[in-house]
Amino acid sequence: MESVARGAAIYFILLIVLRLSGRRTVAQMTTFDFVLLLIIAETTQQALLGEDFSITNATVLILTLFGLDILLSYVKRSMPKVALLLDGTPTVLIAEGKIDTHALKRARVDLEEVLAAAREQHGLARLDQIRFAILEADGGISIVPQ
Amino acid sequence: MPLNEPQVRSDGLQVEEHRQFQEAFWSAERLAWLGFASVLVLVILGLSGSGGIFSKQATRFQEGTAEFPRFSRWEAPEAITALLSAREQGPKVTISREFFRSFRVETIHPAPVSAEAGDHGMTYHFHSVPGQDVLLTLHVRPYRPGIASYRVGINREPVQDVRTIVWP
């Protein structure tokens, strides 16, 4: 019982904190983010297991976490508003070559990041070669060239 | 048109943007960051236990003082300290039963001469050198989250109520 409660509490706390910290935090894996991820993993591991390192406890926790994930996937399928809240929505950063500075600022995305995505995805050299730039719900940037 | 297919915008991009929702969510994000900062300030002040100016509460008795955790954390080590005035028969500390429903006593320093369970709870009897106060430390560990209300008495004084919030 305690293991299920611990697992569910940590799952939802992580979900809420990661979602509210902004999607860029999740998508951009810098060295700092990698260190952050390792620390979070270690911290949550201790909170999840407590002092019980048994295989039974680990199994219960794994089942709890997978169970919650499956449950949430069904909830998201049947309730699109919940899906929108949990997964987010794409944001158009550049439309028809026109830069939406408000969206870039609010989403904490630099033009440098847009250009990097343009170079990586299409080998584009300049900003004016981008027709659309979309910040996807998973935090990645998609580029549609002119 | 198949179900859930995003509409094609006037500029030719087929994407469901929900910009109004996103604007509201960006504002919620910033409010949440303020919330994160507020929580951290409260933690630094000691409201989550484990250090900070508000994490402990001092209780004065006629024959000593004691410092109890005001906030504590589930399964985290905690210390209760007391300064017991010198007494010919050696000081006594009585802790009510309610305390032991939330806390596990791990070590007591100095070790009590005797411990007896009675109607009022557990009474610890300590040895003391005449004229020398006893500095007592109880290393405890909360094993149940919630609000722990218990009573503590030193020697024959009336017991005092103490409350500790144990965070999960």
Automatic annotation (TrEMBL), chain A:
- Membrane topology (UniProt): Multi-pass membrane protein
**Chief place where the protein resides:** membrane
Indicate the transmembrane segments per the record: 6-22, 55-75
Q: Which InterPro entries match?
A: DUF421, UPF0702_alpha/beta_dom_sf
Where does the YetF C-terminal domain start and stop, copy by copy?
81-145
What name goes with this protein?
DUF421 domain-containing protein
**Top-level lineage group:** Bacteria
Q: Which family does it belong to?
A: Belongs to the UPF0702 family.
Q: Where in the cell is it found?
A: Cell membrane
Is Ribonucleoprotein included in the keywords of this UniProt record? no
The organism of origin for this protein: Sinorhizobium psoraleae
